[in-house]
UniProtKB/TrEMBL annotation:
Pfam families in alphabetical order: NAD_binding_10
Species the sequence originates in: Penicillium cataractarum
InterPro entries: NAD(P)-bd_dom, NAD(P)-bd_dom_sf
UniProt name for this protein: NAD(P)-binding domain-containing protein
Family stated for the protein in its record: Belongs to the avfA family.
Residue ranges occupied by any NAD(P)-binding domain in the UniProt entry: 7-220
SUPFAM superfamilies found in the cross-reference section: NAD(P)-binding Rossmann-fold domains
Superkingdom of origin: Eukaryota
Length: 272
């Protein structure tokens, strides 16, 4: 498999890259800074798959056609969005990358004849409605983050996530002859840099302010990509369930944290 990894120098992506290569998949890691190329390529040493680096700034992706050019260069089977402005460049850059560039890559990927999976690394609080499984105090923490602490980031992620959800809905309405497409929205809690625990709470979680290691996020992303039955919104924090068992449970149970959100409204907004 050919994997296009957007945001290749991010901490989650640095953990994810060797996992994908160990499956004998080929990875093209997209990074902005050429100074990071040597560090990225070192991740491929001794792995089963081949690793390539593509120097390209996602801030320059202003349209679906721009994204399509990168898809045409790589011809990926799977696309992973693990990119973000990271607070650099102010609100304008956050909207340009976390929202607009993400949407452009989704548009191009969903329309592609080769791409069959798109995995978005989002965040657990990227939603507008309090889910029934989350207590008031935990939801209040999310609302505070989304309105007071990181309002631009929250707006950008919600817009991208809702667009992805609407695209996935429309894709399923296409003729049955259309090849299957997995739209996976992985939604980790507060990210930490501790080593992986391989123990998670996955699918839905009442822990709106829960945390998860970046390495565990990468492990879950790898396992989700390796299956043909994963899709939808999948919340993630560290917990007590073994990661392999958690992924199996979520996939078999078709657990989708989008429950409680206005999916029909998303579709009407983007595809009136």
């Amino acid at each position: 498999m050919q994997v296009l990894l957007l945001g290749g120098h991010g901490k989650v992506a640095l953990h994810l890259t060797p996992l994908l290569l160990n499956r004998a998949w080929n990875v093209t890691s997209v990074i902005r800074n050429p100074d990071h190329e040597t560090e990225i390529l070192a991740l491929g040493k001794g792995r089963k798959g081949n690793l390539n680096v593509l120097i390209s700034s996602l801030a320059d992706v202003k349209s679906a056609a721009d994204a399509q050019q990168i898809l045409n260069t790589v011809m990926p089977d799977y696309v992973v969005w693990s990119a973000g402005a990271g607070g650099k460049g102010g609100p304008t850059n956050t909207i340009a990358i976390d929202q607009e560039a993400a949407k452009h890559f989704m548009t191009a990927s969903f329309a592609s004849t080769s791409v069959t999976k798109f995995l978005m690394v989002s965040y657990l609080g990227s939603r507008k409605n309090q889910p029934h499984w989350m207590p008031d105090d935990q939801w209040a923490g999310i609302v505070r983050t989304n309105t007071e602490i990181l309002p631009t980031y929250a707006k950008a992620k919600q817009e991208a996530d809702e667009y992805m959800t609407a695209l996935a809905f429309m894709r399923k309405k296409e003729p049955a002859a259309t090849r299957p497409f997995q739209a996976i929205n992985l939604r980790p809690g507060i990210l930490t840099d501790e080593p992986a625990t391989r123990k998670v709470e996955l699918g839905v979680t009442p822990k709106g302010r829960g945390s998860v290691t970046r390495e565990d996020v990468a492990i879950v992303a790898d396992l989700l990509l390796a299956r043909a039955d994963t899709e939808g919104w999948i919340d993630l924090v560290n917990g007590e369930e073994k990661v392999e068992e958690a992924v199996e449970r979520v996939a078999k149970g078709k657990i989708d944290a989008v429950e409680g959100e206005d999916v029909e409204g998303m579709v009407k907004r983007f595809f009136p």
